[in-house]
Design goal:
The protein has two domains: about 1-70 and about 235-295, Rossmann fold, CATH 3.40.50.2300; about 70-235 and about 300-320, Response regulator (Rossmann fold). About 30% of the residues lie in helices and about 20% in strands. It has helices spanning about 1-15, 25-40, 70-85, 95-105, 150-160, 210-215, 235-255, 265-270, and strands spanning about 20-25, 45, 60-65, 90-95, 115-120, 140-145, 170, 195, 225, 230, 275, 285-290, 295-300, 300-305, 310-315. Strands 5-4-6-7-8-14-15 form a seven-stranded mixed sheet. Strands 1-2-3 form a three-stranded parallel sheet, sandwiched between helices. Helix 1 packs parallel to helix 2.
Length: about 325
């Protein structure tokens, strides 16, 4: 609820007088809440992935320093999709801002591919079979990224629709985040590929920082809560919360932050950051930060479903996802 988001940001600023606001996931709520952050001069750190922050269409008080945005993610993975999955792609995505980023930024022409159909589905939808006949018969790859409470239903119904004779599948793990990929009805996913920000399953080459992070947040080698294998984590995204808090810590230290009267200093100190080394504070991997657009850039993982687990088969480079800035927040008044 974007309206509720703006109301909450306002209350944090005027009633609770917090130092910062930290949160929102859903991109349409970020967009709706951002004006309240700007009006109240409240630093607002989001972990949303949408391109809305980096587009410079929000304001100087909104940052996304702990997780990459969809535009960068797609740009860095498009060559792999065209080279390894197929050239004719049908997209299925949620019908709101996050989904529109996927719709707008998957560019395959340079790799000899094309998006032949785009199917937007309301995030509140509970059954999806009626949408699948819209998928063109010549589709070689179904690119899917669904979110919300019915994601498991979406994936199961997709499998029931195609049976064993399906196109290649390339999904964002959002479609199965917090869901056991060994759930009944998901067997057809074997051999398909997913984007992951941080891998759900422990990998043979995990860094010491990644191992320490997994221990600290209490997830096992399968990405489930230690002691409860049915409680599957949102491992692909939740590192962004961890890393963002360390960015805030670093910026507050650099600013000599004492209290809410130093919010403007905090904004400027955050904008002055340029890179985050891989390590305990940034276990997902190294990142660069563009203070003009308030957005970080990092590595992406492409994982294959094999034997009921997700195995990383390709890792992009930071430079694969870089793009030209569309504006400059630092020119705005504080």
């Amino acid at each position: 609820d974007p309206g509720r988001g703006a109301e909450v940001v306002g209350k944090f600023a005027t009633q609770h007088k917090t130092d910062i606001v930290f949160g929102t996931l859903f991109s349409h709520v970020v967009i709706g809440s951002a004006p309240a952050a700007g009006e109240n001069k409240m630093p607002y750190f989001v972990v949303s992935e949408g391109h809305h922050v980096a587009s410079t269409k929000l304001n100087r008080y909104v940052f996304q320093p702990g997780i990459t945005d969809v535009k960068s993610q797609i740009q860095s993975m498009a060559p792999w999709i065209a080279a390894n999955a197929g050239k004719k792609v049908t997209q299925i995505f949620p019908d709101f801002a996050f989904g529109y980023d996927h719709r707008d930024y998957l560019a395959l022409k340079a790799q000899g591919g094309e998006v032949i159909a785009q199917i937007a589905i309301p995030p509140t939808e509970s059954s999806f079979t009626k949408y699948f006949p819209q998928i063109p018969a010549e589709t070689e790859v179904i690119y899917h990224v669904m979110v919300g409470p019915a994601v498991l239903t979406f994936v199961k119904e997709l499998g029931e629709f195609y049976g064993s004779n399906r196109p290649q599948l390339f999904g964002f793990i959002d479609s199965l985040e917090a869901t056991d990929i060994n759930s009944p009805g998901l067997e057809f996913l074997d051999g398909s590929h997913f984007w992951e920000g941080s891998p759900r399953y422990a990998q043979a080459n995990d860094s010491e920082a990644q191992k320490a992070y997994r221990t600290a947040v209490g997830i096992d080698d399968n990405g489930a809560a230690v002691g409860d294998p049915k409680d599957v984590s949102t491992a692909a995204h939740m590192f962004g919360c961890w890393e963002t808090l360390y960015v805030v810590k670093k910026a507050m230290e650099d600013a000599g932050y004492k209290g809410s009267e130093d919010r403007a200093k905090l904004v400027e100190a955050t904008e002055a950051l340029t890179e985050f080394a891989e390590g305990p504070e940034h276990p997902q991997g190294p990142k660069t930060f563009n203070g003009k657009i308030h957005q970080c850039f990092g590595v992406q993982n492409i994982s294959k479903v094999e034997g009921g687990k997700l195995k990383v088969v390709h890792k992009t480079k930071i430079e694969d996802g870089l793009y030209e800035a569309e504006g400059d927040y630092t020119t705005q008044a504080l």
